[in-house]
Amino acid sequence: FRTVSNGILQIISLPGMDGQKPLLVSEVHISNIYVHMQSIRPVMPVTFNMSMAVPSWFDIIGLSPDSREDEPGIKKAAENVKALIDQEVKNGIPSNRIILGGFSQGGALSLYTALTTQQKLAGVTALSCWLPLQASFPQGLISGVNRDIPILQCHGDCDLLVPLSYGSLTAEKLKTLVNPANVTFKTYKGMIHSSCPQEMVDFKQFTDKLLPPID
Question: Which residues contact 205 (CB under 8 A, 6 or more apart)?
């Protein structure tokens, strides 16, 4: 993950499996306040990666809505991220000044963590990803503190790794779990499992709106 802090805000961005990441908005706009940390992401065999060991938050068996999922691994990874959020709160960053986000597997973990944490967050950015363990969530709005959380979900229409259809299903599910008016799903023509300049512009506008400077 990467954390960004200037004393009044925090952006926690989780990379995907094996360090997958798009062109990070941080590297374009706020690289001077970035600290890179990788210590809590384990190296493990990943079934979807021919069982080769790579840095990964949890095992991935497949990338379709009907694929089996590593429920214990997903929940353990989410608890690790929640502990990171708790530590940042102890360090003086209010939880409602924290945006959690990520790319691919990191975005998936960000969504799951935000919907299950008891810390009220500022928002979530979910790039080229999906919501894990969808069947574990209720049919209606979640009961936690983040039922009104703003979510920016972005996906390329040429993504062959995590198909756009999976992203669309995720967006529809999210709209049943949190205030649907706060879920924004943007697609990008010609974008594969990566990023593009317009996505990074949208990312920055979203985070700037949620975390304006404090005088």
Answer: none
**Which residues, 6+ apart, have CB-to-CB distance to 181 below 8 Å?**
none
Instruction: Judge whether 96 and 120 are in contact, CB under 8 Å.
Output: yes
Read off the pLDDT of residues 142-178 as tens digits, 9 standing for 90 and up.
988 999 999 999 999 999 999 999 999 999 999 999 9
Torsion sign, CA atoms 9, 14, 19, 24: negative
For the chain, give percent helix, strand, coil, nearest 5: 40, 20, 40
pTM assigned to the model:
0.87
DSSP conformational letter for 198 = H
Q: Which of 56, 128, 155, 193 is catalytic?
A: 193
Q: Catalytic site residue 56?
A: no
Q: Are 62 and 48 in contact (CB under 8 A)?
A: yes
Reply yes or no on whether 193 is catalytic: yes
Catalytic annotation, pick one of 5, 26, 56, 159:
159
| Dihedral sign of CA atoms 34, 39, 43, 46 in order | negative
The two structure tokens encoding residue 2: 């990467």
